[in-house]
Amino acid sequence: MNIPTVSSFIFYLLGMLAIGIYFYLRTRDLSDYVLGGRQLGGTVAALSAGASDMSGWLLLGLPGAMYVGGMNNVWIGVGLVIGAYLNWQFVAKRLRIYTEVANDSITLPDYLENRFNDQSRVLRVASALVILVFFTFYTSAGMVGGAILFEETFGLNYSLALWLGAIVIVSYTFLGGFMAVSWTDFFQGLLMFLALCAVPMFLIGKVGGWDDAVSRVASLNVEHVDIFSGMTFLGIISLMVWGLGYFGQPHILARFMSVKSSREIPKAQLVGMSWMVLSLFGAIFTGFLGIAYFADAPLKNAETVFIALTQVLFNPWIAGILLAAILAAIMSTIDSQLLVCSSAIAEDFYKQILRKNAGQKELVWISRIAVLVIALIAILLASNPNSKVLSLVAYAWGGFGAAFGPVVILSLFWKRMTRNGALVGMILGALTVIVWKQLKGGVFDVYEILPGFILCSLGIIVVSLLDKEPSEEIIREFEKV
Amino acid sequence: MGLPFFCSLKFFSTTQLKGRRLSEMEYTSLTAATWFWLLVPQLVVLAISVLNFFIERRKQQ
Fold it and tell me: How far is CA A3 from CA A7, A12, A320, A355, in A?
């Protein structure tokens, strides 16, 4: 075991725990625990949204794909940047205001119920169930990634690695709730940014400068410098529509809802978009320059290109810090998803359905217990990394995007939208994603989020127009926003 | 390649180029198209965010 790397990891993990303890002492009610009492600054909200969104894909998946296939992998990044921008520009501010006006809603299901004044609880229960099921699998898949990293870096046994990573994440999420998760995500985002700037900057000198690197990559395979290589029009669209997923991701929308004032949103947008664009460039260039660097001795596992480069470019202490960035990327996603699940249990089921008179202290502890229970289920699922059930995570990004995205957008901007429209749209979006994914060939190769998003929007519009008009109270609230 | 000519900013496909040395014009066109699509959308988004930030700040003052 490498002492500098282990020391960096331990130092990093202790830092995360310290943040958890700090916010444990400041948590008073459920709103504090699941939404930080809407006191999050713009910069922290921006970086925590970015870090919790990207996960290990940014440091392992994208550089790995660039290393194998070259520039044609850039399209997904372009789509994500445009999607994230539109989300900040059009959804963030209005959602922040609307969730406060709509009976101070603190979760996405809570907002949907209050927005449509839904007394039947159908919207709340359906959306909370979708969140619980998919985020449990999502969390579990993240834990598998973290455990494999521990296993490969320290040579630990898989089960021990899984429990070790899970204990740290659960500890600070359990203790400090949303503020701990947001602040740890903020530092994790900074660490990821630092790592993704440092690696390509040092690497470019090692490969003899930019022009030499591009010529070298082109001489190995000219397709690697061609952004259109092997792409069709549908292929490009399919990659770019990943950006549509942003409008329906509960853990990202929670960051918008938690910002202390809608006036903070433009600053948060600027910070968030700068972080995202520069981090994506870092990941893209890490993989691309990696092709030139490892030209004579190619890597067996492409996804380890970032890890391999940190180990050859930096001294072990710096490499340890940069490797901790991978763990940061994985942890920042898991903690946010755990917290969204916990809020669905405490706010959407326990408080609203089981015990309406529950006190704030009781609700905070229910949330904490929910974090433990969901984490335990996720660990059990992750204990078999080859389990087929984990493949369900493939539905999560598209499923959330198609089921919730149009519902969130139209609920914010279309006052004629009704509860039945929202419900039908949600079901149509989710079903389309599931069915489309089973079909192959031709138009069915398009990423399922696109047909899901379109059908969900159509479902909402048609059913809302056929439905009776929303009540005056709902219209008044909409106009107030 | 399904993209329209004006949209692709590229005059040929790499399958035509495979296995032979590129002319300077071919190489320049290929890399120009790649860098254009890599950089322009992301930098435009960044520029709009900067602009939006200053406009909103002025409104708030």
Answer: 6, 14, 9, 51
Q: What's this model's pTM, rounded to 2 decimal places?
A: 0.89
B10 vs A88, A218, A228: nearest CB: A228
List the helix and strand counts (H, then E) for chain B. 3, 0
Cα A328 to Cα A338: distance, rounded to the nearest angstrom? 15
Beta bridge partner(s), residue A230: none
ipTM beyond cut 0.85: no
Which residues in chain A are contacts of B37 at CB distance < 8 A?
74-75, 78, 227
Q: How far apart are CA A244 and CA A319, in angstroms?
A: 35
Which range has the worst mean pLDDT, A330-334, A389-393, A412-416, A418-422? A389-393
Q: Is A259 within 8 Å of A265 (Cβ atoms)?
A: yes
Residue A25 pLDDT? 84
Measured between alpha carbons, how far is A5 from A326 in angstroms, rounded to an integer? Answer: 13
Establish how many alpha carbons lie within 13 A of residue A367's alpha carbon, considering only the half-sphere containing its beta carbon. Answer: 32
Smallest Cα distance from A382 to chain B, Å: 36
Taking an 8 Å cut-off on Cβ atoms, the answer to whether B46 and A277 are in contact is yes
Closest CA–CA distance from residue B14 to any residue of chain A (Å): 6
pLDDT at A432 over 90: yes
Do the beta carbons of residue A389 and residue A136 sit within 8 Å? no
